[in-house]
Amino acid sequence: MIEFGFEHFVRQLDPLGWVLMAVLALLSLAGWTFFLVWLGRGARELGRSRRYVTEVLAAPTLAARSAPGAQAEAELLALVCAGRALADAGHQFAEAGGLAAHLTRGLRQQLDRAAVEAERGLALLATTAATAPYLGLLGTVWGIYHALLRIAATGEAGLAAVAGPLGEALVMTALGLSVAIPAVFAHNLIQRRNRLRQARLEDFAASLLLRATAPDAAAQVDAERAAPLRRLGG
Fold first, then answer.
1. Contact, 74 vs 66, CB < 8 A?
2. Structural domain boundaries of the chain?
């Protein structure tokens, strides 16, 4: 009689099957670890970033300040403060096209760096989501091949004899999907959060640029932007 079941499936795994199982387990562990670490760090940084932006926009003058968890915002502020200080010292920025053009290029460069930094680790989730189903499928095909060899060796060809071993082989596909599906959700969630954070950074950079190049006109705009942020942070 042909044995079947998950326990029998594990016992009869060959070296290739164990390798596939190990790779799927490592991909799953790495993906979940990265996602949980990102989730905890992102929650802390979101609150700190909002408080930092609120304080900067509410301040009467621009002044560089550091803030743990708001490094991107602090770098934007430091760049604008440095440009404003040079302008106050008499630098005309003639070759750069003026202070506004100089700061715009610098802020864009910082924003691009922040976007690249936010993408770190996403390749792992994308790779897991793309390859895990195929690794499971490979295990299933290999398992079906061996199941058919065992069925041929026993001489039993009834439905009960065939369904069990073939069902065992499909376990590898299920394992591959169970690794890939959470990776897809995590990847999409992180990408959405990154887009929202990038939009907040660009809004903050625009506010800093406006204040540095037209301080009087920016005062009312900053006050209006700081009010809802203060309510969120408070």
1. yes
2. 6-233
User: pLDDT tens across 71-99, in order?
Assistant: 888 888 888 888 888 877 777 766 667 77
Residue among 96, 113, 107, 88 nearest 206 (CA): 107
Closest CA to 35 of 182, 196, 197: 182
Q: DSSP H helical segments within 93-233, as ranges?
A: 99-118, 122-154, 159-213, 215-233
Q: Which amino acid is at 234?
A: G
| Alpha-carbon span 48 to 50, nearest angstrom | 5
Coil, helix or strand at residue 84: helix
φ/ψ bin of 156: left (φ > 0), alpha (ψ from -120 to 50), beta (otherwise): beta
**3-state SS class at 25:** helix
Beta carbons within 10 angstroms of residue 119's beta carbon: 11
- The number of angstroms, rounded, from the C-alpha of 108 to the middle of its chain's C-alpha atoms is 21
Q: Which of 68-72, 158-162, 198-202, 227-231: highest mean pLDDT?
A: 198-202
Q: pLDDT by residue (tens digit) across 118-134?
A: 888 899 999 999 999 99
- Give 64-81 as a DSSP string: ----TT-HHHHHHHHHHH
The reported pTM is: 0.75
